[in-house]
Amino acid sequence: MEITKRRAEAGSSIQRERWEILDGEGQVITGATFMITDTRFCDSWVRTLQVGGVGTQPIHRRAGHVREIFEQAFREARDYGWAVSHLHPFSFAYYRKFGYERICDHLIVDFPIGKLDFVPRSAAGFEQVKEKAQLGEAAAVYNAFSAGRMAMPKCVNLERFSIDKPESGVMYLHRNSRGQADAYITLTVRKEFYVNHMRGGVLTVNEFAYETPAGMRAMLGFLRMYEGEVDSVHFENMAMAPEIDFTLRHYLHTTYQIVPDIMARVLDPEKLLRANAYPRRPGKFTLGVTDPYGVAAGAWLVRYQDGGAAVERLDDGAACDIVCDVAALSPILYGAYELDGRALRYLDGVRVDGDPDDFLRAFRKRPRGVFEHF
How far is the C-alpha of 284 from the C-alpha of 272, rounded, in Å? Predict the structure, then answer.
């Protein structure tokens, strides 16, 4: 069946298309929304296909229609320059058969607000965001914060936040002593009315960004301004911000919930190999990738030193130090695991035929995550 494509809303920084398969009467059988944006890979931005809204009418399921849509997307990937695809899965097993694998978790953190006593309480330098110019400054902070934090999408104008919609939260921008924006935080407060007063307040941190340790600590100190109004602080996601986690002091009073979140599917390994941030110490490895759909298959020689690398395409079938199935490749390149040579051999879809040390030094564990659902 033919796939129809409809361009979604205009005026967004993200290109959106709805791909659908119709029956003979023009009714939708299967559909998926494809969003084209840039996401972080180390300090670079890579073109990314975000997938959402995948669904098939019940009477048409198990007929291969979703597979047909994904196969078409994979065929077009190189033409459009997509390096990787991300999605939030309803089933990890279902999307794994298309070459996707888990790269990011959602880390939900809760603690009593009084346990922020290790930072001074302060609102100095903070201002509520009410103008679009302030949103632009916050976007610049976000993009600086995202460097090295894998998978975070580029923020052009914080369009996901609305000044006019309180339900999206209240945003506060922090300026340092030179008047430059260096942090922001988006908050919502929920309280319960009991008899004749409010109780059990929860301060939810929906989103945040900072450029320096001072900006991060200022942000935590600002949360203390809500002492007496709320009882606890709820970070909706802290996966991309390990600095906050190891700044916290009262671990016995802190609860953590990890929710597996994002899967990735490599579409162009060479683009990611070139975008990677390499060690200064010289190294060399050869990598082979197998892909049942063919789009990411190939072999590459990578020589790196002083933080840069030369990447050379090898002949198909060339002998390589490491050979990865495309699904196994994504979490390795995104630094989802802390790997050594022994652990690497335990990964499904990975074969080690040479010395893996230089390869593993180039793809160490890195912070990963996104704030918003796409």
Answer: 16
